[in-house]
Amino acid sequence: MAGMTISKLIQKKAAGEKITSLTAYDATFAKLFAQCGIDFMLVGDSLGNVVQGQTSTLPVTVEQIVYHTEAVRRGAPDAFVIADMPFMTCATPEQACLEAAKLMRAGANMVKLEGGEWLVDTIRMLVERSVPVCAHLGLMPQSVNVLGGYKVQGREQAMAENTVRQALAVQQAGAQMLVLECVPTELGELISSKLSIPVIGIGAGAKTDGQILVMHDMFGLNSDYIPKFVKNFLAETSDLTAAVQLYIQQVKDGSFPGPEHSFE
Ligand SMILES: Nc1nc(=O)c2c([nH]1)NC[C@@H]1CN(c3ccc(C(=O)N[C@@H](CCC(=O)O)C(=O)O)cc3)CN21
Ligand SMILES: CC(C)C(=O)C(=O)O
Ligand SMILES: [Mg+2]
C-alpha cells in the first residue's frame, strides 16, 4: 500500500480496523501483495523453511534476509516492510544494532525480534538509534529446540500472565508492533486490549488487531504438516490475486481466522 507508515498502522488499531499482512520473499510477490493493498509485508526467517527447504528457521543468516529484503523492496517501493532478525543476531544489544543496520540498509522499515523481557535493553538501544522494532511473543520458532516442538503457548494461567507481562515490557521499551504466534484466542484478545501498539496474530485467534500468514501457506503450497491456523485461500478462488484479495477481505471482516483456525 502506498506510503504505509507505523503511525497509520497504530491509527488503524485505534480505529478498530483490522491490519492485513503476509510474508514476502521476492519482488514479484511483493508487487502483487502491494497491488492488492496489503498493509505490510514481513521478510520472515520462515524463508528457511519455505524457500530453502530447511526443517527450522535456525540456519537462516542476516545476509540471506538482506538479499530477500532488497528483492521485496524493489518489487514494492512504497510498502511497509519488516525484516526478521535471524537466530542469534540479538545475543547482545550491540550486535543487534550492527545486524539491524544491515536490514535497514537493505530497505526494511522495521525489524522484528523474537523475545520479551530479556530483550528490553536491545529494543531500547535499537529504538534510540532510529530502528523501529516489532517484537514477537507466544510461539517463538527460533526457540524450537528449547520448547521441544511447535506448540501452543500460554494455555496455563501462569504462562499466560507471563506473556502479558512480556508484551507490556516490550511496548514500554519502545516496540511499536507485536507479533503473537500460537496462543489461545482469549490470550490474543487480552494482550491486544492491554497494548496500544498493534498486535498481529498468527494462530492467535480473530481478536488481535491484525493477522499474518506465511504466503506459501495461504496459497496452499505447504505440502507437509499444515498448522491449524493455516487456510488455503487459493482453494476458493481462481488465481493468486483473487486469493490475496479474499484473504484481505476475510481478515478485514473478521471471518478469518475462524474457530477452526484458532486455539482454545
Ligand atoms: N510454512 C511455514 N509456516 C509457518 O507458519 C511457519 C514456518 N513455515 N516456519 C517457521 C514457523 C514454524 N511455525 C509453526 C509450525 C508448526 C506449528 C504447529 O504445527 N502447531 C500446532 C500446535 C498444536 C498444539 O500445540 O495444540 C498446530 O496444530 O497448529 C505452528 C507454527 C510457524 N512458522
Ligand atoms: C510467521 C511470521 C510471524 C514469521 O516470523 C516468519 O515468517 O518468519
Ligand atoms: Mg520469523
Automatic annotation (TrEMBL):
It catalyses: (6R)-5,10-methylene-5,6,7,8-tetrahydrofolate + 3-methyl-2-oxobutanoate + H2O = 2-dehydropantoate + (6S)-5,6,7,8-tetrahydrofolate. Mg(2+) binds at residues 45, 84, 114. Its main location: cytoplasm. Its cofactor is Mg(2+). Pathway: Cofactor biosynthesis; (R)-pantothenate biosynthesis; (R)-pantoate from 3-methyl-2-oxobutanoate: step 1/2. GO terms for molecular function: 3-methyl-2-oxobutanoate hydroxymethyltransferase activity; magnesium ion binding; methyltransferase activity. GO terms for biological process: methylation; pantothenate biosynthetic process. It is found in: Cytoplasm. Keywords: Cytoplasm, Magnesium, Metal-binding, Methyltransferase, Pantothenate biosynthesis, Transferase. GO terms for cellular component: cytoplasm. Binds 1 Mg(2+) ion per subunit. 3-methyl-2-oxobutanoate binds at residues 45-46, 84, 112. Its EC number is 2.1.2.11. Pfam families: Pantoate_transf. The active site is at 181 (proton acceptor). It comes from the Bacteria. Catalyzes the reversible reaction in which hydroxymethyl group from 5,10-methylenetetrahydrofolate is transferred onto alpha-ketoisovalerate to form ketopantoate. Homodecamer; pentamer of dimers. Belongs to the PanB family. This is 3-methyl-2-oxobutanoate hydroxymethyltransferase. It comes from Pseudidiomarina indica.
